[in-house]
Amino acid sequence: MYRCKGSQRSETKMNPSTLLVTSALYPTLMNQQFIPPETGIVTPTEQQMQRLTKLQDLAKRQPTEYITIYIYSSKSYILITSLFHPLAHNMPQHKALYLDSKCGKFVLGTNETPKPGQGELLVRIEAVGLNPVDWGIQKWGLFIETYPAILGTDTAGVVVEVGQGVTNFAVGDRVLYQGAWANDRASYQQFNVVSASITAKIPNFLSFEAAASVPVCLTAAFLGLYNANPHGAGYSAPFKSSSVGKYAGKPLFVFGGAGAVGQFAIQLGKLSGFSPIITTASLHQTRYLKSLGATHVIDRHLPLSSLRDEVKNITTTPLDIVFDAVSTADTQKAGYELLSPRGSLVVLLNPEVAKTEGKEIYHVFAIPTLPHTSKICTEMYRHLTGWLEEGVIRPNNVEILPQGLEGVVDGLAKLENGQVSGTKLIARPQLTGNVREKLSISTKQEALGSEKSNGTTQKEKTAAKRKSLFRRIIS
């Protein structure tokens, strides 16, 4: 009998589900299906039990295999068991996706598998989320000075080795965290190391793919609202019961609520008690955003000049906080004008409005290891597992890319060309194909096709506009 390790929210009966076995290294065993009668307690049939036993035996015999068994329903999937051999990381090298030079091409190659240092974990990466900054780094040479370089930061995986001094994690733990721009810590690869202090365990009812949508965007929203001035708006973080719901009756306005960062700003606002929570988005997102905590959704296609009247129709309470998850010059100007005389505007890109006396502007850069972010981010990760288990923080919706790390290039091209809305793109590094010497996957232009004709294409015009944003991404 297999007990599902789902949350209490998953105890009710669902329609007949499928037990799906995923096996990265044994394609012939992938997608073997079983039909359990319900979630909660699952009693496999004799044939199902034979298959499960076969997979358990396989995991014990093969030191490089990792197998995860899920129950899938139409809307969710729940981890039943993970079969992990402690020697699964015992390999000197692993596959990695490199940016070969400044403004160069992505190349599939190998990297040395690192050893965890004091207070660190070595993690086998099962899912990595894509972020727009990654294509900005490739296109304009931002941030990175040493090449070839590995990018990628939104990470979920399995602990395979624990460094000295780590007592709160063990081999086999499923974890999520934010990687860093260093070749032993970035996440477009199959293994990396991370500090245990900025790592959280994944609740058993969440998939790796869902978990990988959380770290970077949650950090951006969290720092914007709660980091101390002048690095954030300085509201009390909801670490203690006295801070949960503290700001009841205080309105919060979020530009871009359906975006990856905006969704977390809404959820954190609800956790802190802000009300009403007003956001801009496409109206077809209204139901979803209200499920996250938004009380009012304003059509993002309305003229920005009309926002003041729209907000007045919702609340007459002075607006002390605007979180701009879009952060164009136009949205920043509109948000700043909405503020009360002593209000605060949080932006994700460089400020584009002139400050006036009394009103503050806080520019957030979502890195959890900076001197002014490490303390609050360590505390955030200590609480994150509980928030996910309770459902007060929910991951983004995700779209899973094919071909492991090889699928990252096409995914970044979709992000650059504005072809992603309301979802987080996720790659699965363990499903990467064989490394071929000097394999150049493609540039984004090759991935999407040339489409160039006489004159400037629409893609070039769009890219030119976005280039101006990325050049202002750091203060």
UniProtKB/TrEMBL annotation:
GO terms for molecular function: oxidoreductase activity, acting on NAD(P)H. Residues 445-457 have a biased composition (Polar residues). CDD domains: enoyl_reductase_like (cd08249). Pfam families: ADH_N, ADH_zinc_N. Residues 445-464 are annotated as: Disordered. Residues 104-426 form the Enoyl reductase (ER) domain. InterPro entries: ADH-like_C, ADH-like_N, ER, GroES-like_sf, NAD(P)-bd_dom_sf, Trans-enoyl_RdTase-like. This is Zinc-type alcohol dehydrogenase-like protein C2E1P3.01.
